[in-house]
UniProtKB/TrEMBL annotation:
GO biological process: proteasome-mediated ubiquitin-dependent protein catabolic process
Alphabetical list of InterPro entries matching this protein: Quinoprotein_ADH-like_sf (IPR011047), WD40/YVTN_repeat-like_dom_sf (IPR015943), WD_repeat-ST_regulator (IPR051350)
Listed SUPFAM superfamilies: Quinoprotein alcohol dehydrogenase-like
Organism, scientific name: Trichoderma simmonsii
Key words, A-Z: Repeat, WD repeat
Residues making up the signal peptide according to the UniProt record: none
Protein name in UniProt: ANK_REP_REGION domain-containing protein
Length: 174
């Protein structure tokens, strides 16, 4: 795996080759890069040391990954609608939410909000679910692109009170 880090400079990890990366995320401090693959793997890289810190086999196919810098967590969503909360850098599972239904669509989620303590999840039914990472509970639902599918939901990195989303209604909303 090779990553362009700045101004045409590249960093290669020879431990992993020929990957089809489904999604990736980098910590804000640039120390960690996490990636999930089409072949059901979670890869955790320590960027400065150019080391693969962990390679974890997954039982389900992942669709997205995000990092909570404030809590030191990795969040991963699966095509079955479930998601995991894992420790960074070990990848140890500390909480799992089961999926409700399998989908052929790659619905994206992201971590953000005040101190990176909330998870947004795009939902096939058109809603956006908001999860409190401290308590592990559903904090609320937004209409998103209802009645059409919501495909992604993400936080504004500058203003933790603003979210953006896109859906099958051909609109991007803030």
């Amino acid at each position: 795996m090779t990553v362009e880090i700045a101004d045409g400079h590249y960093r290669s990890w020879t431990e992993v080759q020929g990957l089809r990366v489904q999604s990736s995320a980098m910590s804000r401090d640039g120390k960690w890069l996490v990636a999930v693959t089409y072949t059901k793997e979670l890869l955790i890289f320590q960027v400065a040391a150019a080391e693969l810190a962990a390679k974890i086999s997954l039982s389900e196919r992942p669709s997205w990954v995000s990092i909570s810098d404030g809590l030191g967590l990795i969040l991963m969503g699966y095509v079955n609608g479930g998601f995991d909360i894992r420790l960074l850098p070990s990848g140890e599972v500390i909480q799992q939410r089961p999926g409700i239904s399998n989908t052929d669509f790659l619905l994206q989620g992201s971590v953000g909000g005040e101190n990176d303590t909330f998870l947004l999840r795009a939902e096939e039914n058109g809603y956006i679910s908001i999860w409190d990472l401290n308590s592990g509970t559903l904090a609320g639902l937004e209409h998103g692109h209802y009645p059409e599918r919501t495909n992604f939901a993400t936080w504004n990195p500058v203003d933790p009170c603003v979210i953006a989303s896109g859906g099958d209604d051909h609109k991007c909303r803030m």
